[in-house]
Write a structure and sequence with these properties.
Radius of gyration: 19 Å
CATH architecture: Sandwich
Largest sheet: 8 strands, antiparallel
Order of helices and strands: HEEEHEEEHEEEEHEEEEH
Oligomer: single chain
CATH class: Mainly Beta
Number of helices: 5
Length: 195
Amino acid sequence: MQNKILLSLLFLSVSSFAEAKPNYNNWKLSLNCLGPICVGMSIEQASKITNLKPVMDENNTVIDNNGLSHTFKTYQEAIKSPNHCFHISFEHPLLKNVGFMITNKHISRIEIDGESIKTLSGIGIGDSEEKVKKTYKDKITIEPHQYEEKGHYLIYKPKDKADQKYNLLFETDGKKVIRFRSGYAEEVYLCEGCS
């Protein structure tokens, strides 16, 4: 009898958890996730877990393996394009300045262009280069920015073997963080996104 009661309580708590909506206000960016949205997920998986609608990037451009661009109206059409690369976002005020790069039908990179999101370590847009270096210490590599004359790329490269396929990259104007992104190392390094 006691086991049946415990099983019933466990079922109720699991059901309640499954129906609970994610608390969007507490989302932080890690090496491979923003809240419950993680690199490697399909668009449908991310949409289902967040109850949010995915939308194509404003210009609806998909870049193929040959560097040619194609225009599609929906991400469902875009994902059928062979060797595609495109960007989506999710409709929510907190995610207004957050983009997701899609390659091989899955999220490969998470891009932050607004002040509402910070990293797990508390770094966000407007923070100084010194704060980034102090926070991540010897795990930061510094490279010159390709377009910002005085800017830098501050790249966090994890030491743990399990995490080495991911990177976290901060773009700066030479003094402060102006945008940042994380995900698969190869995609994180693409300074022009899919272009």
